[in-house]
Predict the structure of Solute carrier family 12 member 1.
Amino acid sequence: MSLNNSSNVFLDSAPSNTNRFQVNVINEGHESSAAADNSDPPHYEETSFGDEAQTRFRISFRPGKQECYDNFLQNGETTKTDASFHVYDSHTNTYYLQTFGHNTMDAVPKIEYYRNTGSLSGPKANRPSILEIHEQLAKNVAVAPGSTDRVANGDGMPGDEQAENKEEEDKSGAVKFGWVKGVLVRCMLNIWGVMLFIRLSWIVGEAGIGLGVVIILLSTMVTSITGLSTSAIATNGFVRGGGAYYLISRSLGPEFGGSIGLIFAFANAVAVAMYVVGFAETVVDLLKESDSMMVDPTNDIRIIGSITVVILLGISVAGMEWEAKAQVILLIILLIAIANFFIGTVIPSNNEKKSRGFFNYQASIFAENFGPSFTKGEGFFSVFAIFFPAATGILAGANISGDLEDPQDAIPRGTMLAIFITTVAYIGVAICVGACVVRDATGNMNDTIISGMNCNGSAACGLGYDFSRCQHEPCQYGLMNNFQVMSMVSGFGPLITAGIFSATLSSALASLVSAPKVFQALCKDNIYKALQFFAKGYGKNNEPLRGYVLTFVIAMAFILIAELNTIAPIISNFFLASYALINFSCFHASYAKSPGWRPAYGIYNMWVSLFGAVLCCAVMFVINWWAAVITYIIEFFLYIYVTYKKPDVNWGSSTQALSYVSALDNALELTTVEDHVKNFRPQCIVLTGGPMTRPALLDITHAFTKNSGLCICCEVFVGPRKLCVKEMNSGMAKKQAWLIKNKIKAFYAAVAADCFRDGVRSLLQASGLGRMKPNTLVIGYKRNWRKAQLTEIENYVGIIHDAFDFEIGVVIVRISQGFDISQVLQVQDELEKLEQERLALEATIKDNESEEGGGGIRGLFKKAGKLNITKPTSKKDSSINTVQSMHVGEFNQKLVEASTQFKKKQGKGTIDVWWLFDDGGLTLLIPYILTLRKKWKDCKLRIYVGGKVNRIEEEKIAMASLLSKFRIKFAEIHVIGDINMKPNKESWKVFEEMIEPYRLHESCKDLTTAEKLKRETPWKITDAELEAIKEKSYRQVRLNELLQEHSRAANLIVLSLPVARKGSISDWLYMAWLEILTKNLPPVLLVRGNHKNVLTFYS
């Protein structure tokens, strides 16, 4: 029901419209006239899913008011009325919709918002973004003429999408088929093959009517389950061209789809040769009977097959419409041939036919033929293997899904009906032929029963014929011996031959069309980059002409071989592998429980689909075990190849959905498990900013978290919330993609905050999930702390305090050149833009020269004037001058090299671990993990600990014992006994000079002045503070001296991070400690755990 603020909305007696939304057009610039007419305002209702522009607005008027609004709607476009309503006024008026009686830019639900760009079913529209609706509404917005509908509905379409939609409109004349001609006819023709006419009678003779029907039903069960799975997948969203490949790839992903798509297309191409050779063999048999052989049987098959495939190619290339007409004609012939057989069964048999075993319907024959009578070497499964290929072909309609008007409706209806009709026909033929024809017959009209002769009790004997000698010597007639039984039984034999021709040619034609269509869809997805050439389509139907030629070449090659008995089982297994994956796709999608899996075709069951997949795999081995093995090997190889290449596609496959479900289940299950020290692993928040701006910091962290711990690259956006959120949201996907592209196993997270410390505090508290929460904060050392503002230092030291408050370990990494390479990246981006502009200009000049035909410089300037490139050129020149003015040193080559130092393999050297304070073992665990990595495995651990001068050997032995219990290999242990000695005067002088700008020197001033200075600059280092912690300051300076002495040549130094007690040590003094401690050293990791055990020697 429509809602409106007006009090007389419900006065109309007419029934309400079925649409859910009432939309009023409001003119803000004419409030007075609107108010004057407020007693009876017009009501405009918009249909949510109108297919044509004319239905976008529907006028609901009261009696007597129609003429007032007749000129409001013309051809689906809002026009200017005679009243005071103006849709377009670039200064004062804005066009809005009134939905539920309120002015809003909110758009009503429409199908256009959910289409993909370039959709065949219609153009894609863009709804208003949440920002457009949420932000303050801008008044006096100019609305372009003719665009009011799009503004009001939040549509609008980028230029690229308009171009794509225009292209789709140009292709609107493409021929599309309904479910009968497109699916039903094709599936029936493909399922009814040569087997119906020349092998079904033999199958009934071997297996009997009972088991014969079981074989047919078992085959139908496989195809029916596959048909149900196909129908479910096909109705779970819009289906494009590609048939089985499209269904499998969009369900299971490119790995399965790409592997099965290639072999399925190849199988269809070879199937063309199989069917054509079957047709040619029938023709050659006729030539033999009439003694009209051209060369010899083998070469005649090649000649006739080659001519046939050329004709079929011509029909296919002529267009889908001609091919469809040919299919209809072939189906009519086939139906006539089948009807001819059933008619023949009731026509009284003559003596010649009786001698060949045909006696019309006889109960005795039915009873005799009901049970099996397998000959030597045959059994149920061998007979089933021969029949099953006759039941395939159910994907003939799905394979041309791109040429169907409504694939979601046509594929289920046509496929399932075709399976039903063909199954009924197969069972009908099997029962009829089993009730009319005996298993063995001599063909001799003189083998009749003479009075007084003993009868062997067979059905033929009871009907007056003695075929007992067939038990001792081979006979040429009967179900077991004559493949032309249907021709003999039929009313007119040549019609059966025509049916054989129709069955073979129709199947060949269907395969000839299917193979290029599937192959084209595979090539369009660019899974195999070398095959991109075959993706191009031609004409309004986007015909894959290149694919037709390739299919023709493959078919012709196998026709010339003329020996398909070996490869036929492999082709059958290729088709079965496709069926198995379709069934598995349906099961997998259901099992993943993705909200996006909601097929309109509800007659399916996930477990039945799984049973169908297993059944298909079993049938593959029943038909031919070595062919099944070959099929699996080829599919596995292609799967590995596609997985390795990792095509850049995202189809929302059920594999993704199941990965999410598995990850969610595992994360939830993990929460039920208590943490144990043996399972501790560093789970790090790394303050990299954009991950590409500090690659070295990310690399060293990734070195000890890869495959063992969580790594989250974090960025804090500081500034106005609106701008920060916009920038943050726009870069999230790009930065995560950068991590994936560079094979860094890490996540990217960002927050917008008023200050840096608040943002980090939010990340420390909220990052992670369940047990997968960060336990270590990794930050880069702030090299520019002396030039930084006070708030920056407070934030930097503050986040260290915050980490300790949250019981999170801290790692500070320092390298000589620093981490931030954002300036280098900016220069590289500028150079890339200049290079692109240069290439574009060169292309323009080249095009101009080719068009002007040697017009020279004058032609170039004419072209430049047309393209308006003069102005951008000047900008480019100025940019080039700017770059040229830069010295190469400004690119900071050392910084670039330093940013990649942890990507390189570290040569033989050492990782020096200065484990001065017991923090639970994190200071020791991180370097140990590093030595397990490929790039660091040649580095040995050297352990440095503090100790007493008179107990050096004892403490060395104790540490060695502890490390051996931890099972941590080490090269050397050094006990440093002189850590607490005073540093030399030069070193201490450097430290004093370092902190001098930040000292208060209150002791040199009177009490009043000192108190005033403390209030004005509370952040400065007081003399009292410096004196109170002088011993600790000595230690930091002394440690640097020892590090210079012992570890100057180390590849990496891991050092215990000193902790600044809150309220006791000022921020500037703490930064001075870190500076003097790590000055002039190799890369340093300052590590401090949360003082909870991360190492244990208990099992």
Notes: The chain has 39 helices and 17 strands. The domain at 673-824 is CATH 3.40.50.620 (Rossmann fold).
